[in-house]
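Newbie here. two chains, one complex. Structure please?
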Amino acid sequence: MSDLFSFNIKNRLAGSHARVGELLTPHGVLKTPVFIPVGTKATVKALTPEMVEEIGAQAVLANTYHLYLEPGDELIAKAGGLHSFMNWEKPIVTDSGGFQVFSLGAGLGEGVSKVSMKNKENIDKGRCTTSISTPVNINEDGVTFPSFRDGSLHTFTPERSVEIQQNLGADIFFAFDECTSPLAGYDYQKSAAERTHRWAGRCLERHRADKESFRKQLLFGVVQGGRFEDLRRWSARTLAEMSFSGFGIGGSFEKEDIETAVLWVVEELPEDKPRHLLGIGDPKDIFGAVENGIDMFDCVSPTRLGRNGTLYTHSGVINIRNGSFRADLSPVDEECDCYTCRNYSRAYLSHLYRSKEMLGPTLGSIHNLRFLISTVDRIRDSIEKGSFFEFKASFLSKYDKKTK
RNA sequence: GCGUCGGUGGCAGAGCGGUCAAUUGCAGCGGACUGUAAAUCCGCCGUCUUCAAGACUACGGGGGUUCGAAUCCCUCCCGGCGCA
């Protein structure tokens, strides 16, 4: 870590791996554990940066693949980097495009997503306007994938991913990895992790080659290994020996594997570096992951659910579009302090969604993001006070009773 | 009054002798969503039956023709338009 960064652990919770820390970046401090909203295309969908800030977000996460395709990382560099381009002066994290190796490749082909559930039905296919027919091609040098816009082919190498992310100029960025399907078998997971390790070395090397960006940007390596304990531990150990400033835990999971996979990895990673659980953000999963030593999260789920009408409440999620909320004049959640809950009723939101007014997704996203961020704030607080387990039990006893 | 076109499921609107309980869209009801191909996608949507299978009632009303009608004929009712 350069002189512009530091990571300090302030508190630890006895009987667990949970900790409270501060990650200092050139654009401010991240108090960990932290939930980072996703703004893939340099915007947290449906929200202005002012809203995102008022919600209490400490950082946002954008995506290399999407921004490279449009409007192009060169343009963003010319604009002075992502912070200035998107008018967000707090910390920014960028993902490497590694997730798209999975989501546009095996994920699409197998119809599975980040977290797969056994016996899952209702697999979506054909939900995009541009049909992508060209398969993602992975080889030692890098990955060729189709543009989500027009299907044209583009190749990312680890070096290219780093260069793009240098142009984007986020405070923290990830090494280019191969995110694997949860359905992949042991041999494939192993060779994919080996390749991810080699790519990790190439990312580090390219990052080091640019002195200025090396000073201003932190590079995190990404642990893979699927659901196999020995692979996860070995992947974590391998990356831990490299000079990363922090670690992402990647891959897709079976729902029930998340906590254990995190625990295996955390036990192998150095204590003094931040750990980011990539793409996880279900409230229930967050409690388990924090307990097992995770410092950072990002997830599309609060904004995607919010846009689609599923809203978090302390007694479980509700679908605001259901007929039962049409005339319900109470707020989405009595205990929530967000802008939406302070000013609007369920009936009003129900009306907005039904009439497809764009304010609906906005208010829903505000609420879900605030719900999650304030929950993580309270988790942090409870770790400092030593009351984490009590908080977890009381939260989940209400939240989980209605949630599957 | 005459002529003409039309009356189809909550709405709009296909169908014009069998493969029609009836295309499609909307509305309605429910579901899914975890490093965003996503303000998206999936399912249901005449009645009865727990599902399936099935049964029943159905294309303005009534009556016919036909093995068989939402589809053809007659008549009545209603609406649009034109002429008086």
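Moderator note: Chain A has two domains: 35-118+125-299, 307-402. DSSP finds 16 helices and 18 strands in chain A. Thread marked as resolved.
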